[in-house]
Specification:
It is a single chain. The chain is 46% helix and 13% strand. The chain is globular, with a radius of gyration of 29 Å. Helix 10 packs parallel to helix 12. Strands 4, 5, 8, 9, 12, 13, 14, 15, 16, 17 and 18 form an eleven-stranded mixed sheet that branches. Strands 2-1-3 form a three-stranded mixed sheet. Helix 14 links the parallel strand 12 and strand 13. The protein is α/β, with parallel strands linked by helices and 717 residues long. It binds zinc ion.
Amino acid sequence: MVFERKGTEVKVIKRDGRVVDYNRNKILVAVRKANAEVEKFEKVSEDDIDGIIASIENSGRDTVQVEDIQDMIEQKLMAAGKFVLAKTYIIYRYTRELVRKANTTDDSIMSLIQNSNKDVMEENSNKNAYIASTQRDLIAGEVSKDLTKRVLLPEKVVQAHEEGVLHFHDMDYFVQPIFNCCLINIGDMLENGTVMNGKLIESPKSFQVACTVVTQVIAAVASSQYGGQSVDIRHLGKYLRKSADKYRARYNERFGGTLDADVIETMVEERVNDELRSGVQTIQYQINTLMTTNGQSPFVTLFLNLDKDDEYIGENAKIIEEVLRQRLEGIKNEKGVFVTPAFPKLIYVLDEHNCLKGGKYDYITKLAVKCSAKRLYPDYISAKKMRENYEGNVFSCMGCRSFLSSWQDENGAYKWEGRFNQGVVSLNLPQIGILAKDNEEYFWQLLEERLSLCFEALMCRHHALEGVTSDVSPIHWQYGAIARLGQGEKIDKLLHDGYSTISLGYIGLYEVTKLMTGESHTTEKGSKFALKVMNRLRRATDTWKEETGLGFGLYGTPAESLCYRFAEIDKRRFGEIEDVTDKGYYTNSYHVDVREEIDAFRKFQFESQFQTISSGGAISYVEIPNLQHNLPALEELVKFIYDNIQYAEFNTKSDYCHVCGFDGEIIINENLEWECPNCGNKDHNKMNVTRRTCGYLGENFWNVGKTKEIGSRVLHI
Ligand SMILES: [Zn+2]
């Protein structure tokens, strides 16, 4: 624009070309806003601001572009040594520009409908983006992301997200006041009843009904949160006994005079076993066939734990055995062939009585091992290691890997069920390494800066939930899944005092170690550095917890699509860096590089130390060949898990080709295509492929980064 001078009056040319009168107040407001955001010593005085404005006005120009004014301000601030203030002002400008833009969703939504938005469509391998109802969820997600970036988050958090400094997870849900994941208080819901869709659900009188209620609760809960949920199966034992008592009373009444007691007992047993089978089947089939409003099967974990002090341990042993038996069998695909279901995830707890050292329940563990060899699940939690890490307690993670920290009620009793996670922000460790090159001092300085940014981003998550009332999700807040608050009651007390957690995630410990030390974190030199980084992250969350009273935890990010996103951003910015950006993905949390040769025992032992530090979330895996015909080998590993690592899983391959009927490993060929090794079929619609993608299994195929990562995985046995 051109600027005309009338006397001392300056004209300003706006971005759209319009000429307006110069308005000193606008500059004043912008500089003051930036000034208010920085530390005291970075601030400029009102006099300084006057001086800056005067110098613009006295520049002798008649017309001036609005961008030029802003550049002049930045230069003046820099010249005065106020670098942070200058940066803050730049970010303020940047956001104003962003807000000025119209919404950014038109293209992304149209391409979703036309099935050409690969990024969004492949972001979550549990969502089939061709299905109309899933599309609706994805479209809502695009709108939410847009509003989050333009309106809801501070500009510097958005900028950090865009630059891959950090990842603000689940932006596609941030527009609504819902949380991440939880451990459902299912015992209380079954015992005291619940309400769904305005209808009272009373305490069940039989196992079959209890299983149906559990399934309904899971569906309702999944629709009002975005992360995973877990259910401890031990609460079902009581209802299996109720069923037995019911049949015993009925048969005694009818046949008491004519049949022997042991005959009646056999009849009861047979009837109860029937009910056990159909109840477990209800849970398994319902969860797999359910589509929640999120456009996916609910992310559910069933926690299979035999507690020696449980009065229903006998019933629960039967239930767990049945769950594993049905999982081993699989679920029929559309061709009627049994395949590996992705949900629910199963976690099997190893304790003294079932750790394959001659315990009473070893027979169930043997079945679990057989099941893992064929169906990937169950994963394993060592009660022994867990008690070391969590003040003597054993409890389920929320969803796939998010662990609560200890919390005691007013009577000093530990409480785990009915608690939740507010959300996650993840830090890109490799990027810090790239920027620091091998200047360690600068590395730690940059890490500090970025940690405070993560803290700020996490507080945005927290503040977004504050003041929310129980009415947003009655099943969570009013009818027992989390709490039994009154209508209209605020959820705030559950956000504070560490009742719920809030997580700092991280990704690429391997890559950052490689960048800073030239070695993998499995070497002596490398592991020393890696531990230092991990301990610093942990100290950050501990400090934040002390300062705010909020349940901050350190969380090993699963990084399903993030492993790709961060690596792509860094490759664009910094080019190809060997072993870092050239692979197409970053390594999950603290994990050993998927390409690195390391045996299964050593991998578990090595990674175990990081699980203790990363107590807000961690899971380790080993990649195994098909061991269905060598179960003793897998049993050795399970024994090893019990003594050495808290939470572990096995990755094996159990795929199916519809074209030729091949039942084994469908491979990733050189062009990164999935291909049947038997007949060469490459049609995704004619194969079932199940792989571990994060802590969960995925079966709708993956983005290119994740596919590369899966293709690079070496065997550990
Ligand atoms: Zn085939």
